[in-house]
Amino acid sequence: MTRKLLFSATLAVAFLGTACNNAASKIKSDSSESSATPATDRTSQNTQAANQNQQSITTTVDPNAKLPKFSFTKESHDFGTIEEGTIAKYDFEFTNEGEAPLIISSASGSCGCTVPQWPREPIAPGETGKIHVEFNSNGRTGNQSKTVTLNANTVPNKRILRISALVNPKPKTEQEQQG
To answer: Would residue 44 count as lying in a domain?
Structure first.
């Protein structure tokens, strides 16, 4: 039995090795026939294009530009142990430590149980604001970790806030215990 298995495995390896070599040689011959540009020239062209793209990305943000900047008191909050069904609330406070008005274009929770509210008006340099987050623990027991993703006119333009809780299940009613 083991000899048959060993023989089959050896044949499979030999077959795969031959198939890969044939495929590799076919790719090499097909690419040399289909293009007059040698591979090294194509690689050089791709590298040049990537460098040009990187330069345009780098130059789009002026290092001397006056930009807004988030500065949060806390970027994560642990509600601790709560009972299932509790709507836990927390306000993440921040200051715009930049030199331009800070505009939050959107804020979204990682699931429907996490709902953020954010200021819709620009936050002037030096001013403060808050992101109000409500976590509905109904139907969510055990350790919970959720995120709120903010999109703003900052660099980088995304900021992630985190909340967590240990949710104890609701006690069962008499009907649930009998049922």
So the answer is: no
Q: What is the mean pLDDT of each run of 10 residues along the chain (179 residues)?
A: 46 42 40 41 48 45 82 97 98 97 98 97 98 97 98 96 97 72
Q: Residue 94 falls within a domain, yes or no?
A: yes
Answer yes or no: do 92 and 158 share one domain.
Answer: yes
Name 150's Cβ contacts closer than 8 Å, sequence gap at least 6: 70, 104, 106, 107, 116, 118, 131, 158, 159, 160, 161
Q: Look-up: residue for tokens 């890969």?
A: 20
Whether the upstream peptide bond of residue 156 has omega within 30° of 0, thus cis, is yes
pTM comes to 0.64
- Domain interval for residue 18: 1-32
Contact residues for 94 (Cβ-Cβ < 8 A; gap 6+)? 70, 71, 72, 73, 123, 128, 129, 130, 131
Q: Are residues 28 and 75 in the same domain?
A: no
